[in-house]
Design brief:
Layout: H1 2-18, E1 22-25, H2 26-36, E2 41-44, H3 51-56, E3 63-66, H4 70-84, E4 88-92, H5 96-99, H6 102-110, E5 115-121, H7 137-141, E6 147-151, H8 157-169, E7 175-181, H9 182-186, E8 188-191, H10 211-223, E9 227-231, H11 233-237, H12 241-251, E10 255-257, E11 272-275, H13 282-290, E12 293-297, H14 303-306, E13 317-322, E14 336-339, H15 342-349, H16 359-368, H17 373-376, H18 388-399, E15 404-407, H19 411-419, E16 428-429, H20 440-450, E17 456-461, H21 462-467, H22 472-478, E18 483-488, H23 493-502, H24 517-523, E19 527-531, H25 534-546, E20 551-556
Parallel strand pairs: 2-3, 2-4, 4-5, 5-7, 6-7, 9-10, 9-12, 10-11, 12-13, 13-14, 15-16, 15-17, 17-18, 18-20, 19-20
Antiparallel strand pairs: 1-8
Helix pairs in contact: 2-8, 4-6, 4-20, 12-15, 18-19, 18-25
Length: about 600
């Protein structure tokens, strides 16, 4: 069966390259267009309204990954896009198949991830009649996509898909949904792929700053005495890491990062301050409040970064380098907006940037570092208890900071951001804006397909992991290698932490019972390990790395540990809850062990 399939694929490719009009079904047009867009893998789940497309798939050199839930397909496409920088593709049937994509689409939208979601739709003749598995998915997803399109004739499919890829990956990236009726997939028409670029009247994503705006920015930078650069996700999306390094080299300005910006500027660089915001480093937040100039690159000043807007960086002028005009002055009023691609704008600034006279400012920031969470945890007691910080820090040391880490959402997400130092872009994938539990496992599968030679680690909590644990079956079926670290504290940890701080320790609906994760892994013909001490944790990490199969490690960590520092929601950015002094088995002072 394999040999005829290969012959058929080669024949199809030869016809595709001939550019002669041929009579094809809409389903064939779908796959041919995807091939021309450079797609070689899609993540999906078949069903009635998309079945004609699946029937045509074996003719084309596209690998289909069968997920166990359509939400997993969307997260896989998302993870593929984050790791590769290309457009990720997911596919589902109509009705529940399409609506199951919604959470993953919203996740991609909030984090500006280029993704194309393709859904089957009931035949055009019965649309609006409440037909079996009919849902207006273009209407449902309109608020959580960059654009939606619908094709009800085979002649419309190629153009709809070309527009979808163009829109998804131009300007500020985002997800685009293409809904294709079943009859459009089944009917035939004459087809020849049109390689002409997409032109959409009224859609002009290519913005550029004016020369006088660049001059004004350079003036503001030269006059500043206490400047800080904010590195957001846009630095990586624009592939601007190298230019940012050069800009910092020329100016000496320190860099703070958003959660999604981690890795956009090397963590071990002497000018890297660390993460800002709700669970950012204490000295970073204090420095922001004392700064006189903020240069924000590819970030959106969301509430987890700013805290109380009324008291946020009141003495700082603000330069906002941003691709999306809608983000300018949306949350924080700025003094100068440089609209356009971060790489282009840094390229304009770098040749004229000069060393700023900010030595006293750098020295002052160094004095603030004495208050950091990193310094507070330098001598974590190794007394038999296993803390999440142990696991994350040892994972960083053992992998030498080179792993591609995909985190879920919760306490472990913040511990990873604090204790795993990311020196390379696209090496931390996480749901930032939407905060989607269950993201990590399927997103890591997508990332592995994008980067098959990379060492991929999932870092997930026991709660979020269970939301998409069925995708272990996808890993087994695809026979791919991923390492999975479950930070198992028996709680929905971040919610429990808020209950501890703000709800008088009333732990309502946060204790969670989990299956035996070791047995669960073994049930999927994967490898399961367990660690309850720091010594066991290090051994388990090493064993996971050397095993050829996917390994699930159940790290049984201290149950009531919390993430520090923490800025309460709506509080001033420098009004942080700090780690209390040693109190026995809970809330100890601990450190990363950087001096070990």
């Amino acid at each position: 069966m394999a040999a005829p399939m290969k012959d058929l694929t080669e024949a199809t490719l030869a016809q595709m390259n001939a550019r002669e009009p041929r009579e094809l079904t809409g389903s064939q047009i779908l796959w041919e267009t995807l091939v021309h867009q450079g797609v070689d893998v899609v993540f999906g789940y078949p069903g009635g309204a998309i079945m004609p497309a699946y029937d045509a798939l074996p003719e084309y050199p596209i690998h289909h990954v069968l997920v166990r839930h359509e939400q997993g397909a969307a997260h896989m496409a998302d993870g593929y896009a984050r790791a590769s920088g290309k457009v990720g593709v997911c596919i589902a049937t109509s009705g529940p198949g399409a609506t199951n994509l919604v959470t993953g689409i919203a996740t991609a939208m909030m984090d500006s991830i280029p993704m194309v979601a393709i859904t089957g739709q009931v035949p055009s003749s019965v649309i609006g009649s409440d037909a079996f598995q009919e849902t207006d998915i273009t209407g449902v997803t309109l608020p959580i996509t960059k654009h939606t399109l619908m094709a009800s004739r085979p002649e419309e499919i190629m153009q709809a898909l070309k527009e979808a890829f163009y829109i998804a990956n131009s300007g500020r990236p985002g997800p685009v949904l293409v809904d294709i009726t079943k009859d459009a997939q089944q009917k035939k028409c004459l087809f020849a792929y049109d390689p002409a670029p997409v032109r959409l009247p009224g859609y002009r994503p290519g913005l550029h700053p004016l020369p006088r705006e660049i001059e004004r920015a350079l003036e503001m930078i030269g006059q500043a005495e206490r400047p800080i650069i904010f590195a957001g996700h846009g630095v990586m999306r624009a592939n601007a890491t190298g230019l940012l390094l050069e800009f910092v080299k020329r100016t000496g300005i320190p860099v703070a990062s958003t959660l999604l910006g981690l890795g956009g500027f090397p963590a071990t660089h002497p000018k890297n301050l660390g993460m800002m915001g709700m669970h950012g480093e204490a000295w970073v937040n204090r420095a922001i409040q004392e700064s006189d100039l903020i240069i924000a690159i590819g970030m959106r000043f969301d509430d987890r970064v700013t805290g109380n807007l009324k008291t946020y960086a009141q003495h700082a002028k603000k330069i906002h380098i941003e691709l999306d005009p809608a983000e300018i002055n949306k949350n924080v009023k700025v003094d100068l907006a440089l609209l356009g691609d971060a790489r282009e704008i840094l390229g304009l600034l770098v040749p004229h940037a000069r060393q700023s006279k900010i030595d006293p400012w750098i020295q002052h920031i160094d004095t603030l570092k004495g208050e950091s969470s990193v310094l507070e945890i330098q001598h974590m007691p190794d007394n038999g208890q296993l803390f999440a910080a142990h696991v994350i820090f040892d994972l960083w040391k053992i992998t030498q900071g080179k792993a591609l880490v995909v985190t879920d959402v919760g306490q472990h997400q913040m511990w990873e951001a604090q204790y795993y130092k990311h020196d390379y872009p696209r090496r931390l994938l996480t749901s930032g804006g939407l905060g989607t539990m269950g993201f990590a496992l399927p997103a890591a599968i997508g990332a592995k397909f994008a980067c098959p030679k990379e060492e991929v680690w999932v870092v997930a909590g026991d709660g979020g992991f269970q939301m998409t644990a069925a995708e272990l079956s996808t890993i087994a079926q695809e026979n791919i290698k991923i390492n999975i670290a479950i930070i198992n504290n028996g709680y929905l940890g971040m919610v429990r932490q808020w209950q501890e701080f703000f709800y008088n320790k009333r732990y309502v609906a946060t204790p969670i019972k989990s299956p035996d994760f070791v047995k669960l892994a073994e049930a999927h013909d994967l490898v399961g390990l367990r660690a309850t001490t720091r010594k066991e944790a290090g051994i388990a990490i090493e064993q996971a790395r050397t095993n050829e199969r996917t390994v699930v490690v159940d790290f049984r960590v201290e149950q009531e540990d919390s993430v520090y520092p923490m800025v309460p929601a709506g509080a001033d950015l420098d009004a942080m809850i700090r780690r209390p002094a040693w109190q026995g088995t809970h809330n100890p002072i601990y450190e990363t062990g950087e001096d070990e």
